[in-house]
Specification:
The complex is a heterodimer of chains A (278) and B (325). Chain A is of the alpha/beta class. Chain A has a single domain (9-276), classed as Rossmann fold, CATH 3.40.50.970. Helices cover 40% and strands 12% of the residues of chain A. In chain A, helix 5 links the parallel strand 2 (146-151) and strand 3. Chain B has 2 domains: 2-10 and 188-324, Rossmann fold; 15-180, Rossmann fold. Chain B is globular, with a radius of gyration of 19 Å. Classes of the chains: A alpha/beta (278), B alpha/beta (325). At the A-B interface, helix 4 and helix 5 of A face helix 4 and helix 5 of B.
Chain lengths: 278, 325
């Protein structure tokens, strides 16, 4: 199974721009949800869905597909926008986000829409599910890889560390965590709410194979992700600390935790779109 | 006493724990279904999945003392096609991982089977911290969850095997004490189908789990007092066998329930929820009355906390008095 797009870096940069524009339009229509996290993770989503992941949107249950587990479920608007662009459903359906009878729930539900692998919202839960899916691949000698996107504040949940212990014990080298490391959580900066550093050292101490990348730079993402994947076989779960900027691409949102859990009003959306269309 | 001959019950006074039945069931299931895997949070011996572990080590995973992760990993395995059984004590699972059971398992409709050992006062000497008396309440409120409390070891074995054949999450609560075995290999067991043990016309006694012995002993004593009791083993608390239960209640027009669990939001409450839609009849619920347990011998605990056959007998008299009004 292959990636259906296999975009070049230049095409990925253009796709990320389109996704951000669609994201702002979708959120301002909703109009509720999270803006900062989705903007910060857009480049990673573009790289995954348009180059890295092996899947077929016409055959979303194919057992050979890579699994994309979203553990920080609150950033799901960017998952929905990316899935629409990848061909899972029509773009117009994005306008139903958070509306009654919509398949696009405020936090993702695996039974709502083919292609959504897991239900999330309560932090930590996607991580354990990703571990279970990676374990199953090992049991049945499947080639699929499991990518688990998670937030940095998710490392404050005890379940996260339970899951890391397990992943290391069972040598789940087919499991790739990507941490959205924007240093912001709902109530402020992570070092103020509950410090997690030195995170990379802690992860190494849990016997994980740790990588760093700039999560808002396509070239870096497209260098580090394939590099991490080339290490499958080393019997270590992979974890990539992706430094990102919350609200990336919209200057008045960048690094401002006030934009964690709100959406732009009409004027703010227009201003944001003017930056993104430059 | 008019026993239901179709069930081919036995009264030879043999005893065994429901956990031993679960252990036997899991070994048999492992043999007939290679998609079944077992996860356990450091309690394979106590929960009786140890024999499965020894026989099928490649399908057994020890999570360590990490029940939340156990629920999530089980969900991930189920969502990719396996049939995971996850085992721990009821106080830890669902006691400690209810959020994961709610979101990763039931909301996600993951085909996970939850084995909860040491439920009820049967944890006895371990004391109140280890006596799961709230787990029926915690699991039956979850949409899509099937809840089973086997009444004896043979039924527990059948329940463990049968759970794999129905899609979706199943919760099985079982216990440590050796209790009388009434069912036999020949006794029918269908998830969602209650078994009427004795036919009677004065009162219905509904029991779930290992309290069936108290119910049966009470029925014998009541018979000597000239009261004819219909005893029903409701091993599946959710979904309830509405037809069997309502048919009996329309005949007796009163009932007593018994459970090794809080009466609040437990089995008796589930029966009341059903009855409230169909009839208005006197009843009483036997079980823990809003208190924690304590350390002590199991029999003494049942007696002290009112889950004894004597409590059933006196409750039946009170209910029959109200029926006469």
């Amino acid at each position: 199974m292959n990636n259906p797009f296999n975009f070049s870096d230049q095409q990925l940069i253009q796709k990320a721009r389109e996704l951000r524009i669609e994201l702002i339009e979708t959120l301002s229509h909703a109009p509720s949800g999270h803006t900062g996290g989705p903007l910060g993770m857009t480049d990673i989503f573009a790289a995954l869905y348009f180059n890295i992941l092996r899947y077929d949107p016409q055959d979303p249950e194919n057992d050979e597909r890579d699994r994309l587990i979203l553990s920080n479920g609150h950033v799901c608007p960017i998952l929905y926008v990316t899935m629409a662009h990848a061909g899972y459903f029509p773009n117009e359906e994005l306008l139903t986000l958070r509306k009654l009878n919509s398949r696009l729930q405020g936090h993702p539900w695996n039974r709502a829409l083919p292609g959504i692998e897991n239900t999330s919202g309560p932090l930590g839960q996607g991580i354990s599910q990703a571990v279970g899916m990676a374990l199953r691949a090992k049991l049945d000698k499947k080639e699929y890889r499991v990518f688990c996107l998670m937030s940095d504040a998710e490392n404050q949940e005890g379940q996260t560390w339970e899951a890391m212990l397990f992943a290391a014990k069972y040598h789940l080298d087919n499991l790739i965590f990507i941490i959205d490391k924007n240093n912001i959580q709902i109530d402020g900066y992570i070092q103020d709410v509950m410090p997690i550093e030195p995170l990379d050292d802690k992860l190494r101490a849990f016997n994980l194979d740790v990588f760093q990348m700039n999560g808002n730079n396509i070239q870096d993402i497209m260098y580090i992700l394939p590099h991490a994947l080339s290490q499958i076989g080393n019997r270590m779960p992979k974890i990539i600390s992706a430094n990102t900027i919350l609200g990336y691409g919209v200057p008045f949102m960048e690094n401002n935790f006030a934009w964690h859990g709100v959406v732009p009003n009409h004027e703010q959306a227009a201003e944001a779109l003017s930056y993104l269309r430059q | 006493m008019e026993y239901n001959q179709e069930l081919q019950l036995t009264f030879d006074a043999k005893t065994e724990s429901t956990r031993d039945g679960i252990g036997k069931g899991m070994v048999k299931l492992g043999e007939i279904n290679d998609q079944v895997v077992v996860l356990c949070a450091d309690l394979p011996d106590s929960t009786r999945v140890k024999e499965f572990k020894e026989k099928y080590p490649e399908r057994y995973f020890d999570l360590g003392v990490a029940e939340q992760n156990m629920a999530g990993v089980s969900a991930g395995l189920a969502l990719s096609g396996k049939i995971p059984y996850m085992a721990s004590f009821g106080v830890f699972s669902p006691g400690r991982n209810w959020d994961q059971i709610r979101v990763s398992i039931t909301y996600s409709r993951a085909n996970v089977k939850i084995l909860a050992s040491h439920t009820g006062l049967g944890s006895a000497e371990d004391g109140a911290s280890h006596q799961a008396l709230e787990d029926i309440a915690l699991t039956r409120v979850l949409p899509g969850m099937t809840v089973i409390a086997p009444s004896d070891s043979v039924e527990a074995m059948k329940a463990a095997i049968a759970a794999a054949s129905i899609p979706g999450p199943v919760y099985i609560r079982y216990a440590k004490p050796a209790m009388p075995i009434y069912t036999t290999e020949a006794t029918p067991f269908t998830i969602g189908k209650a078994n009427v043990y004795t036919f009677g016309h004065d009162i219905t006694i509904l029991s779930t789990g290992i309290t069936i012995a108290s119910a049966m002993d009470a029925a014998l004593e009541l018979e000597q007092q000239g009261i004819s009791a219909e005893v029903i083993n409701v091993h599946t608390i959710k979904p309830l066998d509405e037809e069997t239960i309502l048919t009996s209640l329309r005949k007796t027009n009163c009932f007593v329930t018994i459970e090794d669990h809080q009466v609040m939001a437990g089995f008796g409450s589930a029966i009341l929820e059903l009855v409230s839609k169909h009839m208005c009849i006197p009843s009483e619920l036997i079980g823990m009355q809003d208190s924690f347990g304590e350390s002590g011998p199991f029999d003494a605990l049942f007696e002290k906390y009112g889950i004894h056959k004597n409590n059933v007998v006196s409750a039946v008299h009170r209910v029959l008095d109200r029926k006469k009004l």
